[in-house]
Write the structure tokens for this entry.
Amino acid sequence: MASRNDKIRVGVSSCLLGLEVRFDGGHKRDRRVTDVLAHHFELVPVCPEVEVGMGTPRETVRLVGSAAEARLVTTRSGVDWTERMERYATWRVAQPDLAELRGYILKSDSPSCGLERVRVHGASGIPSRDGVGLFARALVKRFPWLPVEEEGRLNDAVLRESFLTRVFGYQRVRAFLDDPAWTLAGLVRFHATHKYLLLAHSPRHAKDLGQLVARAKTLSREELARGYVEGFMSALAEKPTPGKNANVLLHILGYLGGHITDADRHDVLAVIDDYRRRLVPLSVPVTLLRHHVKGRDVPYVRDQVFFAPHPKELGLRNHVA
Ligand code: SF4
């Protein structure tokens, strides 16, 4: 569901927005989050340590024990916050504002917000890097298909594009299936327009989803909706490679059949080959192919989300993988 101002809502660790909620009263503003993503999303700040009542400034906390049974303990005085944080996190992720989120950006390395590789201090004295922050754990348990990423990884163009593709995809699939009036014919259309995007991420999931839709009449609406979201988000979680993208581009070119001249087809093939060899970014063959699709009587390919899975202002698909 889009938010009240129609922007997609994305949760963010508060300190990344520049809010002074860290243990020392400071913040960890992340310019990519505040300057780029804020234009496209309504960012919803959550600071678990402040909201659980630790106060600011506060004594630092860390994970202690083992990754499977990590406890959240203050570094100097040894106060154990585990139960309070777990109770708070379970309650917080059940609040309606979090159910509206379509993505989440977490602060790395935090014993509360870190998604992976958080330090856990065990008996050996050498911290292992296999912990998960207690709030992050509750978040992904409650929303297994919510796209979640740490801020540092968003500096990588490929990971950033992957995260944003999942956010916009999650928004589209939830907007469609959350409407109680959705129909099977509508789902068939939704699936058809996403076919090439799904293929570019995961041919296996694309095939499974096609089969799910084909046997839709044997399933209840709830089973169908649950199975579709699960398959859709599992597909988008897989990384598209130049090989998979090139195959999709060739499929689309094949679909154009006699709609383009041999010379134009030759040009497109050459650009797809350049892309496959990582000489040009994906935006180059996509733009050329889209130009040939435009204005021709090929609605099936013209309407493919693959051509524009996110706003072009985000400048994605301009990197060479
Ligand atoms: S990492 Fe999480 S808990 Fe720590 S200050 Fe930032 S928002 Fe608060």
Observations:
- The two ends are 32 Å apart (CA to CA).
- The pocket of iron/sulfur cluster is lined by residues 13-15, 21-22, 47-49, 107, 110, 112-113 (CB under 6 Å).
- The longest helix spans residues 157-177.
